[in-house]
Amino acid sequence: MSEFPVLLPSQDRHYMTLSQEGPLFILHLHHKDNRFTTEFCQTILKALQIVEDYFLASEDPTDMALVTFGNDKIYSNGLDLMHALSYQPFMDVYLSLLRKLVTFCIPTVAAINGHAFAGGCMLALAHDYRVMRSDRGFICMNEVDLPSPLAPGMAGLLRYKMTPKTYRDMILQGHRFTAQEALDQQLVDIICPNDEVLMKAKELALKWAPKAKSGVVYKQLKDEMYCDIVRLLSVPFHRLAPKM
Question: Using CA atoms, how far apart are residues 184 and 163, in angstroms rounded to an integer?
Answer without folding.
Answer: 11
